[in-house]
Write a structure and sequence with these properties.
Radius of gyration: 23 Å
Strand order of the largest sheet: 4-3-2-1-5-6
Largest sheet: 6 strands, mixed
Strand content: 15-25%
Shape: elongated
CATH class of the largest domain: Alpha Beta
Number of domains: 2
Distance between the termini: 47 Å
Order of helices and strands: HEHEEHEHEHEHHHEEEEEEHHEEEEEEEE
Length: 360
Amino acid sequence: MNIKALGKTLKDGTAALIISQVNRLYFTEFESSDGYLIVTNKGAAFITDSRYIEAAQKEAKDCRVLLMKSGKEFAEQLVSVIKELGGKTVWIETSRLSVSDAKLYEKILAEGKLKLVLNDRLDTAINEFRKVKSGEEKAKLQKAQRIAEKAFKTILPMIKPGVKEREIAAALDYEMRKAGATAVSFETIVVTGKNSSKPHGVPGDTKVKKGDFVTIDFGALYAGYHSDTTRTVCVGTPTPKMANVYDTVLRAQKAGVAALKPGLRAFDGDKVCRDIIKEAGYGEFFGHGTGHGVGVEIHELPNLSPRAKKNILLQPGNVVTVEPGIYLPGEFGVRIEDMLLITDDGAHNFATLPKKLIVL
């Protein structure tokens, strides 16, 4: 479906050359570390090497699958396939292309009397497709979320004084894979005590202590689609200041979730959360955007950010996170994150984990 939809947007004589692993996966629903997808309004072809050819012939959707030739023969093959599909002008993903590769493709195509266009047309078109999730994509995202949540619940009992950050992270990664994840969505973040003031801190040998916050940012990869969730828990009773900061982040996060609906400016999706944190006196301690799109990549469009263009509106099918935080250097930090689907009249929250402070 995705390939056919892309083909319908291309004029006669225009071919899309898709080289990135993530966009090949998005369009063919087949994962490979190497390959080239060519799409025109007349059809599509996927060229891949011998490691993937058998599986690709069975699994790749809506395209002819060809065995990649080597060396100079590949250049001739690429040109030949594009011409067979009616291509004369070739669009390519410039945002995922190095300068040296751009020169190489330009040379290969010019020798075949084809014109390579180095602009952002293909990137823009693909981003527009990927922003709106299909029913099948939604189901994969939901499954990824369920896997991650099951794993999180399993490892909660091990979070106690004396346990290292890296031990918690390793256990969570293992449980996600055990529950059906093909991989983790990103390097799992587990930070405790003073380390929790680092939004993207790396789990290390720091041990959990009584009275610590522990912030856990995690996600599962399932069938090429990611989940993304953050929860902050407390080991023992939090101080009044810790409780106040947690409550502030929770109020901001709930307000951000409640605001999500079609037509909401992405800028305002951020502002709702940011204003609450500013009013509480912690504005300078919330330095990142409120949320981002999630799909075949852990960070994709649209972004809920103070830097978002004010004409960017949320629409049904968008999947975004809402993850405000407060980070007090040398003390502690709190982040709470859910992943949500924009629906026709609001938003569906994929996350089911409680957000009331969990005291262990």
